[in-house]
Design goal:
The chain is mainly α. The chain has helices at 10-51, 58-79, 87-90, 95-130, 139-143, 145-169. The chain contains six helices and no strands. The longest helix has 42 residues, at 10-51. The two termini are 28 Å apart. 16% of the residues are buried.
Length: 182
């Protein structure tokens, strides 16, 4: 079930629709990764305990899967607007000023993620120079998760910021998540 917002204009509605579709793909990917990593680790533990069979690349696969879950989980958290927020300061502002603060924080977060993206590209170049073909997944392939995750995070930040700007332009206040007090 998709949540609808009655005050969304046509532009905000379109952006939310696209954002929700990308978020659904991320959610499916995250669940798939989690099932694969946990299933692989459980299968390895059973094979080891029952039959004494060791899978040589177990650590590499679990580490890479966990890293991928962390990066893409961050992108999904951005889609859900569940990332760390400054509630202590923003709750003292009016809804309109909170919206402006949200936009400014999104711009700042986008700047930080762009730095992360650039660091990921540098890491890819560094790993390309050291290319080791002995591993199932090279460090270079793992390093690609940083720019891909960064692009997804920036995508969600831009979409949410454009929706907020659309609300500001129309003189409306977008719906906010309920505050839990902690």
């Amino acid at each position: 079930m998709t949540i609808t917002y009655p005050d969304d204009g046509p532009f905000a509605r379109l952006l939310r629709n696209v954002d929700n579709r990308v978020g659904l793909v991320e959610q499916i990917g995250l669940v798939t990764l989690l099932v694969l990593v946990v299933g692989f680790a459980a299968a390895h533990a059973l094979l080891d305990k029952l039959f004494g069979v060791q899978i040589e690349m177990k650590g590499e696969i679990v580490k890479t899967g966990t890293y991928a879950i962390a990066i893409f989980g961050s992108a999904y958290a951005t889609h859900q607007s569940r990332h760390l927020a400054m509630d202590l300061i923003s709750r003292r502002f009016s809804p309109r000023n909170r919206l402006v603060l949200k936009i400014l924080l999104a711009v700042f977060a986008g700047f930080i993620v762009i730095l992360m993206f650039r660091a990921g590209l540098k890491s890819i170049d560094n790993e390309r120079a050291r290319a080791s073909h002995a591993l199932l997944l090279s460090a270079q392939q793992i390093a690609w998760m940083i720019p891909i995750g960064s692009v997804l995070i920036v995508f969600h930040l831009v979409v949410h910021t454009l929706i907020d700007i659309d609300y500001l332009r129309r003189g409306k206040t977008p719906p906010e998540r309920a505050r839990s007090g902690h």
